[in-house]
Amino acid sequence: MLRWLLSRAAGDPRLAELAATSPLVRPLVDRFVAGDTLEDGLRAATELAAVGATLTLDHVGEYVTDEQDADAAAGAYRDLLARSAEEQLPAGISVKPTQLGLLLDRPGCKARVADLAARAAEADAHVTLDMEDHTVTEATVRLVEQAHADGATNVGCALQSALHRTPEDVRRLTRLGAGIRLCKGAYAEPAHVAWQRRVEVDRAYLEAARYLLREATYPRFATHDHRLVAAIKREAAVLGRARDSYEFQMLYGVRDDLQRTLVGDGYRLCVYVPYGTEWFPYVVRRLAERPANLAFFLRALTSG
Ligand code: FAD
Fold first, then answer.
1. What domain count does the chain have?
2. SS3 234
3. Which of 165, 254, 286, 287 to mutate to test the pocket of ligand 1 (most atoms within 8 A of CB)?
4. What ipTM was reported for this prediction?
5. 27, 57, 174, 297: which sits with the fewest CB atoms below 10 Å from its CB?
6. Can you give the CATH number for the domain in which 76 is found?
């Protein structure tokens, strides 16, 4: 219920404006978002690279409602790729298909993905399509398939263990050789498409992770759940997988302690670094993941 309410709040422009103008909300935003500008994102990325992490950068934004905004988002990612290459950062990009116009014009969105993939390939960088709500899952998986059909093998996507369809998507994209980021899923989804209980989502995660460890070339495990992290390490060791043949991924500002431990122990860690001004829905999803964050946010919003 809380997740559902928050998912409604995430799309409310009035709340976004209220949050943007409340100075008291800023400390919470700063925890999860590197800053408003590309330079802020690059600064955070440089610091993380210095301690041994790789990066995937997200110029925040989603569900754009006109072509101009989709073009502007693609332009922001072009600038990001150029600057990241200049700085020689070990960084890829994470981009939301609806930010590139998926809901407006699919061929246009596909062309933007192709352009970004080609530019990323020049810097040997990976492009991950973030997975959004279940109504765009099939379209997102198809974008990855189309990119591969056109030779852009550096394009992959996130898959959410919460969704019933995910085991099939995991097999489908593994057969293709596409990079998969396995996550639990940050969207409030209905029972006819998604597991509702944490224990079911976690069980599905572990099953998909086991499949990926057996079958995929380079799986990416996006979770801060220390039990899953431990299970994946154990399973990988049993299968004799080298530590550089898979990676963990975590979000900027979440479980920094676990991030440091993984790097210190010689595991690969990729940190997801969001930046930009359209941070409201991203931050609301982070709040939904942890009610303790939410209480702080609501206090700040109502007294701001
Ligand atoms: P949980 O059981 O939720 O959390 C485990 C522990 O991590 C918690 O006990 C807490 O200590 C800590 N923690 C987790 N979240 C927070 C938080 N917000 N604030 C503070 N502490 C926290 N979801 C999508 O739907 N699509 C995507 O494309 C996508 N990409 C992602 C990329 C990366 C790199 C990561 C790490 C996550 C991504 N997610 C995405 C979000 C993901 O689906 C989960 O919602 C999120 O990671 C929380 O699940 P968890 O696996 O960390 O486990």
1. 1
2. helix
3. 254
4. 0.99
5. 27
6. 3.20.20.220
